[in-house]
Every structure is written in structure tokens, then in C-alpha cells.
Design goal:
By secondary structure, the protein is mostly helical. Helix content is 46%, strand content 9%. It has ten helices and five strands; from the N terminus they run H-H-E-E-H-H-H-H-E-E-H-E-H-H-H. Strand 1 and strand 2 form a beta hairpin. Bound molecules: fe (ii) ion.
Length: 272
Amino acid sequence: MNDSPRSVDRREALAAIGLAAAALPSLAMAQPPSVTTPNAPAPKDGGKPPIAVVPANAAPAELKIFDEASGQFVLPALPYAKEALEPHIDAQTMEIHHGKHHAAYVAGVNKALGELARIRTAAGDSALIKHWANQVSFHLSGHVNHALFWNMLAPAGKGGGGAPGGELAKAIAASFGSFEQFVAQFKATAASVEGGGWAWLAVEPWSKQLVLIQQEKQQDMWVTGAQPVLGIDVWEHAYYLKYQNKRADYVAAFLNVVNWRFCESLFARAVR
Ligand SMILES: [Fe+2]
């Protein structure tokens, strides 16, 4: 197949994450026409592989996670000032979380894809392919999760907090009985994730039902194809400076800065 190293890298990344491009709005936005699902057949004309299944109107957010010009994953800027979520999430946590932890995931996926490229050209150690493939999965999932996470938040009273409206509100009521019952289950779900991980409100793709799930490793959810609506990072780096061991307090505070309008856009895309 006539293929560029860059497009091969990106298919590997998606394969490692267990993800079709259509399953994730942030990636879908960033995909060029050359990206395919991992097992897509080679084009008969020797040209570029077929276009991924990405709805043309799939653009609920301005998430720039990949730079076409450099062929590198990139760190998107926070959509608000680092102190904008105070007092619920403090500025220092935001600064470190975004500037250090998220940045490390971006560097990690670029590093891993580079190492896999070296292995393909026999410059690298093929015995390490399992290691680097795992690194792609871990770091790319961390990158995508965090890119979504920043946009799922907004300053309290200025886009953050309150309750969802529209079809998402109806779906939450249908799936959980009421918004209040959803909140109670969300808090309990997030509080009880073992170790580091995430809790997600997501659309299960086969039934189109909303579910609350735990993701003890940050790459696990995408294997199921679940489509994110709201996620909370409960790794200690997300809250420990302010809340120490009181994760439940962090979860409660988090709900004061949820950007439900963004979540509604993710839900609308997931169910159509
Ligand atoms: Fe995090």
C-alpha cells in the first residue's frame, strides 16, 4: 500500500486504543481523510486508504489534539484560565495537571509512535513492540481523556454547574430515574474507582443507553466503544493538592463546574 509513515502511525495509535475514529469526537475532528479503521482493506488504486467513518457534522468541540503539519499529537490549550474553576478546582492543580501530566501523555504517545516507526525500519528493537504498543494505548488514551476533560468543565455560574437540559436531561431521567439519582450514582461511582482512573457517563453504542462506568486504567473504556458524555479524572493528581484523601469532596465540587452544554453536544452526537 502506498502509505505515509505518518498515516501508518496514526492507524497504529487507533488500533492500540481499540477505537474507530467515529467513536470519539475529539479524534474525529482531528482526522484527515487518510485515517482508516485498523483493519480497513488496502485501496485497489494504490492511492490513499479509504476515509474513516466520521460524520461530516461531527464537531461538538474545538479540540485540537493532533497537528497535521508536524505529524505530532499536540497539547490543546485550556479553554479558560487556570484559576477559572476556583474554588472548586484550584489553579495550581490545573496548572500541573494540564501543563505536566497531560503534556506528558502527549510526549509519551509521540515518543511511542516514533519508536514503533524505528522498529518498522529495523532501527529499533522489535522485541519491544509490545512495550511501545502499550505505551501508545496508555498515553494516547490519557491525551484524549484529558482533552475531553478540560472541555467538560467551565467556571461555576459561567457555563459550569447546574443540570443538563434537552435530550440529555431526558435520557438521564430515563436511564437513572432522575437527575438526583444520577448524581448520587455518579458520586458513588467516581468515589469508588480503585486506584487511579476515571468515572464516565457514556453512551453504550449498541443499546444507545446511558451508563455509568469505571475506568481503572485510562485506556480501558475505548475498547468497548463507549462514547463519552461526562468524565471525571480521579487520579490523585487531579485533586490531591486541594482535597488530599477526600476524593468525595472533590467529586462533589466537580459537579459545580460541569459544562453540561458541552456534554449535551457529545450526547447528541453519540446517539444520532
Ligand atoms: Fe489526569
